[in-house]
Amino acid sequence: MTDSSAACVVPESPVLTTNAVNRTLSDLHAPTWFALLSANIAARTVVFHPLNLAIARKRVTSEPRPPGLFAFIAAAYRGGALHIPAGDGRNTYEMGAGGLRGSYRGLGAALTCNLVGEIAYLFTLEALKERMTKGAAARDGGDVAAEAFEGHSGYAAVAAMCGDVVSLLTVTPLVIVANRQMTAQYGLSAGNAYSGVRTTLTEVWRTFQPPRAAAGWAGARLMHGLRGLYQGTSAGLLRIPASGCWWALYTKSKEELYVLCAPRLEEYRQHHAAAAAAAAPFHQHEGAEHVSLLSSPVRLLLSGTDNPAINGLASAIASTATTLVFNPLAVIQTRQQTLPPAHVARLMGAPQRGGGRRRLWRLYASSFKKTVVVAQELVRVEGFRAFFKGATANVGVAVFDGIIFSLIFELTKLSSDLQYLS
């Protein structure tokens, strides 16, 4: 090859056999992936905590027309008393010291449960999805990677729901602590005093302990303690389909968008690379066979295999649809976890008596009954609109968080890809 012809060659970056749709857990260097995931989760938790604090407080408001989202954020930073019109008068809530401390109330518990919960969730999701995909391929006698953009959205949905169960059972006690810390002394949770993680866990453990529990059967104390630590689990279980819905929509949207856009993006990439090669001075190409002429941002945006714009759009579609459908359960779950036990007991009515297995069964049944009666009170007192309290903010946060999550999540997988690292 002559020097003149070499000057016209468009250098290529290493070609990967994996892409954003079909990349699996076995394609990754696990320690690198876990480290990048942890940094991603911690950063998103810190950035979004003031918004999540405002949303949690909005969900436990008793007023028919609570302040807007930014009013809650400003009140948390300002501190002091917050006055909300209610009927002929107004309700006053003490917001605490204010400043960054007020805006980041409950951050420690939220950060811990997000790190543990998300890593457990994503590892379970990726491991089960890969196992089911390989199992199906083995049964069919086919190749797992037969289709370049086959993401197996059905398997992704099932694996995501299993991951949600693991995450729910792992971090629900810390979620309750974070919710109590964020909503303490406000709204329907005005009777809850703000305290540290250890003290709050102790209070939650004692929530459903009967007066003479200390002298009773140890198994009963454990049962009542776990009942306190896993408040709202019934609503959380009802929300598990939301996880499957999001991942099914996200995976399927990625499949369709990549199939639709990949050929055209490849044309654009070749065109821009050729234009860059023609415009660059001759001497810049000597010995540059392994260096791309396109800058990294342009190469990513023109990628037909790992494109952040496509991943972000797929995430926005999934987040919008899923959040709107499942917002009512989010409202119910937050109220279950933060309402005073006496208030919920009045809604539930007098408990039936019984022992042994019947008592254990009623414990599970009463948890779902609590979800129903909280929802009934919500409709009776505040109307169906109450199910969508914070929905606008939730959709905005979910879309923004989903886009950031998908961009960084897919980037962490790409950066942990064994082929990419080699």
UniProtKB/TrEMBL annotation:
Compartments, as annotated in UniProt: Membrane
SUPFAM superfamilies: Mitochondrial carrier (SSF103506)
Primary localisation category: membrane
Keywords: Membrane, Transmembrane, Transport
Range of residues in the leader sequence: none
GO cellular component: membrane
InterPro entries, sorted: MCP_dom_sf, MCP_transmembrane
Recorded superkingdom: Eukaryota
Pfam families: Mito_carr (PF00153)
Bilayer topology term: Multi-pass membrane protein
Name the record gives this protein: Mitochondrial carrier protein
